[in-house]
Amino acid sequence: MTQWIRMARVTVQNYYQYRLVDKPGWTIGWTWANAEVIWSMYGAFATQQGNCSNHMFQVPHSCKKDPVILDLTPEAAPENRTEGCCQSGLLSAWSVVPSKSFSSFEIQVGGLGKMTTVHPPVNLTLLGPGPGYTCGPVSDAEPTVSSDIGGKRKVQVFRTWKSTCTYSAFLANKSPVCCASLSSFYNPTVTSCPMCSCGCSEAKQNTSSCISPGNAHPNSRDDTDVLQCTDHNCPVRVHWHVKNNYADHWRVKLTVSNYNYKRNYSNWNILVQHPGFNQSSKAFSFNSTMLPTVGFEDEVALFWGYDSYNNELLQANHDQLGSVTTEILLEKDADSFTLSNGWAFPRKIYFNGENCQMPLPDTFPMLPNHDVGLHPPPLGFLLLLTLLSLKQLLD
């Protein structure tokens, strides 16, 4: 019986605007419809070879009915690579670095039977890196067309299939990873992250998952996260400080802190929902862009670091937290801007696509009973001071 072999290219494209696939990267799985095997792979690998006893002279890369696939690392040998591969399974958010939001690999598939009866795989799964993604059925799509001979020739593939995977925080069923704290120039009170935002630590400090500030570094070599002990117990805290109020603008300082002793966050991003972003704004130390407001009640701004400068949120150490910070200058909307009732604070904050736990509105720093000094002084008041000073000099 003739054994047909076909080369297939698999592409994983992240269309989420602000959700990335972080370490340890994506994992893809599927179930073959018939007796297919993977003879060879480029740009990725199957985690198990399976039972290949039926192939005595040439052993396939994987004979598993339900192979599990991982991306290769950037250090992969040239002969094992293919275009778009080898990022350790990391995918950037679409709005941050589109060129790094996809990953591709090639597989040589055998055991296809007759060429006219090729069926798509079923039961596609995606871990990115943990649970939460649900993939739809693999269905036919318009055959992919690529360019050849310097773009002068168009080549169409035999078949193209696609599946769409969507993320659900409910299905992920994991503890929050981020919380928000708030402060302002007009009130000395700092609103901390809510107590136990990301779970409650054990009553005794310096456990295997929590170390008090200033104590020894964690020395375990496994992948278990070790955090600095806090009331919120979150790996990441985002702090929003209302810093200045000018005649036509207002200024905010945004700081992201890493309480994890064992993990850096590469290519992080912060999404902030606030009605103040309906006016022009400028971030001084972060990249930024406005996103469509689909699914949000107010304007949303996305922030991320500059390459080779602050796109790596470093882990905490013995002396200090890892942190990145920027100031943001926002233009005022005369019809909506106010410092009253907590308006100047975000409605929602997301870190790497995960919802940060916000303090309750009744705990926000509030205006004092009198608001002297909160508004830019009027010109008449300045002239009065000047006249008084002159009169004092004349006297």
Task: Name the descriptors.
elongated, 5-stranded antiparallel β-sheet, single chain, 395 residues, Immunoglobulin-like, COB_C, mainly beta, 6-stranded mixed β-sheet, 34% strand, lipoprotein, disordered C terminus, 5% helix, 2 domains
Low-confidence runs: 377-395
**Distance between the first and last residues' Cα:** 115 Å
Based on secondary structure, the structural category is mainly beta
Order of helices and strands: EEEEEEEEEEEEEHEEEEEEEEEEEEEEEH
| CATH uppermost class of the largest domain | Mainly Beta
Radius of gyration: 27 Å
Query: Can you tell me the CATH architecture of the largest domain?
Result: Sandwich
Share in helix? under 10%
% residues in beta strands: 25-35%
Q: What do the pLDDT scores average to?
A: 87
Name the overall outline: elongated
Largest sheet: 6 strands, mixed
> What is the fold-level CATH name, i.e. the topology of the largest domain?
Immunoglobulin-like
- The total tally of domains equals 2
Order of strands across the widest beta sheet?
A: 15-14-18-19-26-22
Number of helical runs? 2
Number of strands: 28
Pfam families: COB_C (PF25079), COBRA (PF04833)
Domain COBRA C-terminal: 178-365
Organism: Punica granatum (Pomegranate)
Subcellular location: Cell membrane
